[in-house]
Amino acid sequence: MDISEHKEAPSVIDRYYTRWYRTDMKGKACEDFCILQHSNRICVITLAETHPILQNGRSIKSINYQISAGCSRLNNKVSGKSKRGGQFLTEYAPLCRITCTDEVEYTIFSCIRGRLVEVNEDILTRPDLLLEKPSTEGYIAVILPKFEESKSITEGLLSREQYEEVISKRTNQQPEPC
After folding, report:
1. Residue 43 exposed, middle or buried by CB count within 10 Å (0-12, 13-18, 19+)
2. Is 111 left (phi over 0), alpha (psi -120 to 50) or beta?
3. Is the torsion defined by CA of 28, 60, 55, 45 positive or negative?
4. Tell me, what's the pLDDT at 2?
5. DSSP 141
6. Could you give the C-alpha distances from 15 to 10, 36, 139, 160, in angstroms and in order?
7. What is the pLDDT of residues 76-87, one digit of tens each?
8. Whole-prediction pTM
9. What is the DSSP track for 44-63?
10. Buried b (16+ CB within 10 A) or exposed e, 138-155
11. Is 169 exposed, middle or buried (0-12, 13-18, 19+ CB in 10 A)?
């Protein structure tokens, strides 16, 4: 077997996580998110590769986990195996706000119901991680769905194939794709 026939091993993400997608979140065109679901129910919220933040060489000015005067995702504290004490989120709960250097602000939503386990504080000091490695070190947050909801949590989400169909239709229908 020569080297050209050797297949590359799947990444950790591809091997242990199922990718689910939420497109046009809250009716905003192209604001797409990727939810990486591990077999242990944990879900990692990331930007999908089509999200406007990752397009056209944008740069990030700031990331803010302060959602309102009384609510900061940075104050989230969990304990124990069942992650007690974590903030409970609905699918439309804002996780953070990201402002690009062109002053456009994007609200990042949880996309699923569950308990907030952690937010990625590394992107506060290194926002380039969000642009360079959105599925790994540049993730937004980790959410643990309720056990009884862990199977139904993906009902409103798209599989990779369905997501690619949406992207293909967008590209063919819009005069100016996302």
Report:
1. buried
2. left
3. negative
4. 47
5. E
6. 6, 11, 17, 14
7. 888 777 677 788
8. 0.86
9. EEEE-TTSGGGSTT--EEEE
10. bbbbbbbbeeeebeebbe
11. exposed
